[in-house]
Amino acid sequence: MESNSQYARMDYWDERFQTEKNFEWLSGLNAFQHIITPLFSKDSRIAHIGCGSSQVSMQLWELGYRNITNIDYSQVLIENGRLEYPNMEWISDDITTLINCESSSFDVVFEKATIEAILVTEKSAWEPSDSALHNLENIFSSICRVLKPNGIFISVSFTQPHFRIPALLREKNWSVEMFEFGDTFHYYVYVCRKGNSLNKELADRYSSIAKSWLRPI
Length: 217
Ligand SMILES: C[S@@+](CC[C@H](N)C(=O)[O-])C[C@H]1O[C@@H](n2cnc3c(N)ncnc32)[C@H](O)[C@@H]1O
Description:
30% of the residues lie in helices and 22% in strands. The protein contains eight helices and seven strands. Helix 3 (56-62) links the parallel strand 1 and strand 2 (68-72). 35% of the residues are buried. The protein binds S-adenosylmethionine (SAM). S-adenosylmethionine is lined by residues 13, 24-25, 50-52, 54, 72-74, 77, 94-96, 112-114, 117-118. Keywords: Methyltransferase, Transferase. InterPro entries: Lys/N-term_MeTrsfase_sf, Methyltransf_11, SAM-dependent_MTases_sf. This is Methyltransferase domain-containing protein.
């Protein structure tokens, strides 16, 4: 029987990408392009982590961004991508380590709906498990490591700020900002700038609602 917990399994994604060539989670670039493209330049080195079969990288390419790396732990997806879009770089890697990516090598790390896939087995949004918090710390510290000084992490998500902002605040090496888009269902763009000091007003506002996302482990 199908359940959301399958989204946390690599074998599920490998099987899905045997046939799936194009599927966009949450929203396509056109809905949030106005928020993200002013944040970087045409020659920025951009990593789309947990890229899946999203067309965001291809749409950025069409807009003139030519230094794009697609990263996913599904070997099937990466091999298909290399054949179909050889003008972009494709790296098979787990976003909890990014072990196959060089330190300080990207201006921008972009993710959409992959953190949600990794947290899908969580039982309560108010009480994250130790394992969820470990995963988040590993993901965020890996992203920080591969970002250049002053690089930015962009996360497009349906997770509401009172849950996601305290989680992002676990990483002490970046500042956090938030934008919103969508007409009926609202989505969020979280922007974290490596090396910037914390936005205290935002931190104060969001770290007291769902405090468990900030608890020590
Ligand atoms: C929900 S899809 C999102 C795909 C794409 N970002 C989008 O917005 O359409 C999650 C993707 O993350 C990948 N993924 C899940 N866990 C991962 C991990 N730990 N490391 C790397 N990729 C992962 C899956 O293979 C899948 O392609």
